[in-house]
Design brief:
The protein has 13 helices and 11 strands. By secondary structure, it is α/β, with parallel strands linked by helices.
Length: 310
């Protein structure tokens, strides 16, 4: 690393987060060996969040924006496009606690990358009091191209990207549809985009206390295969599910028009994107690259394909 202190724009979307917000903001401002610019967009909070944000309005390292409620995915993508210049960009939730080396560890793993690159890490799970209760992943989760289409196992709150990835993701032509962001939010799009058009780097060491509480928008859920199948069938029975994988694949294919994508990845996306007929479902199930890389249960994958949620 050079002697120059790297700059990091930390992007936070807040919504009714008064309970834990101060602790999180302070942990971000206490990051070591980096120049911090914390950019906060409040997504139409109705509790005391805005009052707390006003306490920080004179801090030169914080920019605060207020907007109407758009939902977490759209709100974060608006932040990504904000006119903020930095060497690196990071997503932050409103209720976690960052260890003081979180960003510098990410920077050190990203600084040698010459192509668009995304970093994500493991997490230390914490209870609602911020007390550690255990590491989330005992081994590296499936986060390659194929598996990132099926499921995002990397939390957005651990993600840090270099400037090249941010430039590509913030281009209007490379935006996912609003419909997609309302279902699977920004972190799943970011991981899939990085795998499709750049590189993803995983850090097995946690640098964040990932707080679990009753108000989590996204949290940790541990289920065995039988529980996952029953939960899926119950959800499928109770509501019409839009195929989020199909939406993701179609949006990535639209994005591919402005990017260079290898033919193997394009074929994988095509099979996901067109899996709305019996013939195309068979082709998806027979795709060797998907079968070779997929770390989800084959049974679960087959059920999802047959029932039209892939």
């Amino acid at each position: 690393m050079s002697d120059r202190i790297p700059s990091v724009a930390v992007l936070m979307s807040t919504y009714n987060g008064e309970k834990y917000l101060r602790e999180q903001i302070d942990s971000i401002l206490n990051q070591s060996e980096v120049d911090i610019q914390l950019v906060i967009r409040d997504d139409g909070s109705t509790d005391g969040t805005k009052k707390i944000l006003k306490e920080y309005r004179n801090n030169k390292n914080i920019i605060i924006k207020y907007g109407k409620n758009l939902g977490i995915g759209v709100s974060f993508m608006k932040l990504l496009c904000a006119n903020i210049e930095a060497d690196y960009y990071a997503f932050a939730d409103q209720d976690d606690i960052w260890m003081d080396d979180k960003l510098i560890c990410a920077v050190r793993m990203l600084e040698t990358q010459e192509e668009p690159a995304l970093y994500g890490s493991n997490q230390m799970i914490a209870n609602e009091n911020g007390e550690p209760v255990g590491i989330r992943y005992k081994q590296k989760p499936p986060c390659d191209f194929v598996n990132s289409i099926m499921s995002c196992r990397i939390s957005g709150c651990t993600m840090v990207m270099n400037r090249k990835l941010r430039v590509e993701m913030s281009k209007k032509i490379n935006f996912p549809s609003r419909k997609y962001l309302q279902i699977r939010i920004h972190d799943s799009w970011t991981l899939a985009f990085a795998n499709a058009f750049g590189v993803f780097i995983y850090d097995e060491i946690p640098h964040i206390l990932y707080r679990q509480h009753g108000d989590n928008v996204v949290g940790v859920v541990n289920q065995n295969i039988a529980q996952r199948i029953m939960a899926f069938l119950k959800t499928r029975r109770n509501q019409k599910i839009e195929s989020t994988r199909r939406l993701l694949a179609r949006d990535l294919l639209n994005t591919a028009r402005s990017q260079n994508m290898n033919l193997v990845k394009e074929k994988i996306l095509m099979d996901f994107a067109m899996s709305d007929s019996v013939t195309r479902k068979i082709l998806l199930l027979r795709n060797r690259e998907i079968r070779k890389k997929l770390q989800e249960s084959r049974l679960m994958f087959c059920i999802k394909v047959i029932m039209g949620t892939v």
